[in-house]
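subagent[fold] <- orchestrator: predict structure for attached chain, return C-alpha cells only, no commentary.
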Amino acid sequence: MKKIQVPYLLLFAMLVLSGCSSIRKISTKDSAASATSLKKVRSTANREFINGIEVTPGYLVTSSQKTGSGISKKGGKEEAAGYGKAENRLMSFGIENASMLQLKYAIATDASVEKLTNIPLLEVIDKWWGTKYCMGGSTDNCIDCSAFTQVIMRDVYQVALPRTSQEQYNFAEKIELEDLREGDLVFFNTSGRDISHVGVYLLNNKFVHAATSGGVMISDLNEKYWQPKFRGAGRVTK
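subagent[fold] -> orchestrator:
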C-alpha cells in the first residue's frame, strides 16, 4: 500500500509546482501587457497646439518675424509692454473662430479676438513687426516713427499724413484721451522738443509705433516710460 502512494505523491507535487510556474508566467505577462497598454495610451494622447505664436513678457514674436530678445530698458530708453501670461488670456478669446492674426494681437493688446475686426490693420502691423528703427528711415530695413504712422494711415485708412511727428501733430484734430479710438494718433515728447514721437492707437490703451529701442512694436500708454511723455491725441479724417 505504501509503495503505491509514493508515485502518486510525487506526481501531485510535480503538478503543483508546474501550476505555480504557469501562474507566475501569466501574472508577469499580464503586468507587462498592462504597462505596455498604459504607455501606449500616454504616448498617443491627442494634443492640440497653436502654431506661429511666441509670447514672452515684454514682446511678441510673430510667425513671419522675430524681434530677438525682450526689451526692457530705462534711463531715457523706450520700454516695451509687458503682456503677462498669454495662456490665461487665450482661454477667453474664443480661439475656435479666430484667425492666427487675431490670436497674435489679442495677446499683444490684452483684448478679446472679437474686438480685433480690422484685419487690414493687423496685416500691416504684422508685415512691419520687429522692423528696426532708424532716424529718417522709411524702408523695410528700417523706419522711424512718423514714417510708420504714414504707412498705416495710407495703407489702412487711405489718409495722407505730413512727414514728421510735429507736422502730424499740427495736422491732426485734437481729441481728449477718453475719446481715443482705433486709428487715432498719439503724440509724445521724448527728446526735449515739443513733439518727437508718434504712434497709432489700437484699443485698450495700446498703441503701435516704431520705437528707438525695439523697432515696430506695441506699447501701453500707462507704462511708466510713456505716461509722463504723453502730449496729446489727434484724429485725421479724409
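orchestrator: received. Logging for downstream: The mean pLDDT is 75. The longest strand covers residues 206-211.
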